[in-house]
Amino acid sequence: MKTYKDSINEICSNIHTGLVDFSEPRERASIPTQASSEFITNKQQGDWAEDVLFRAINENSENLVAVRYGKSDDLVAGDVGFEKFFNNYQEELDTIGKRPDLLLFNKADFDPGLGLDISMKDSNEICSYVSKAIAAIEVRSSAFLINKYTEETNRVLQENIDKAISLRNKILSEYLDVLEQKRPELVPLLRQLDDVSVRSLNFKTPTWRSSSRLQELSSLLSEIKKCLKVIQKRNSLSITPKVEDLKVVHKWIQTYDVPHYYVQVFFDRIYGMSFQHILELIANPALEDEKYFIEQDSKNQNKTTIKIPSQDGICLAGAVTEPNHHSVRKELNKGRLLFYVKFDGGEAFLDKENFEKLFDCSL
Q: pTM of the predicted model, to two decimals?
């Protein structure tokens, strides 16, 4: 019988090695020299995202227990003891892979003696216990209200569609004779421009200057091109696995054979997707720039990130109340001061049906 890790291996064998080569050892990360306020704020946001999901599951589930598992030490570059922590973490990545943030256990398999947090336990001590988990969750966070983002992007999208169609109408009614003379192939292209075709339409913009009508036509076509650029740009928030994490997540799955999931927490909604589905997407090059995008993420040290539209995942919580937040002062060992934002509170309202659909279990 094929195991979960066998299925993952099969999919990984079909992923282009130019994106990630699972047969090669991972590149060990260099130790960071110093932390920034932005880095610590992002870490605090990630910790909050994990906590809000952890609480939502444990406060609402009759059959499951969520347990903290991922490394959660508060040390950052510049703190005493960080170098030892970092090196130990790198060793663990090479030994068992990357611990997901949360594990889900059936209540019958939950060990009250180990409690709700096993993040500081040595991997050898809890190896057999971890293997009993029914799901592993990597929690990602995003500092957006996805509802407002979607509302605004839809408004801009429709505005540009309407403008492109209006420009098309003006060209066909006032400049058709010139267009048929200079660029006749654009006539059927413009005639088919509508709410659907505008999302894939493309043409080279002319730069005519020899007459006022040609200049005007050139300008109108240029304006349509600008609209197309806005319409066709990726305009959705995403589930965001990092390419460098694929190997260490794969390693963890090979160690424990537990189904793995990515969950993206926004400040008003939560979406999830299985790691298996993520791999299936990136194993299909034809889906790049349609179902997934590969980008250098400037907000994450320019690390290569796979971005999958959130709406293509499963909505695990249709509502999240925002956390409280306050400023914190941190003094590093050489007297350097950092100020960052700490989050606490907030509540996620789980969609029972969608949760059970994604994790294939009874909440």
A: 0.90
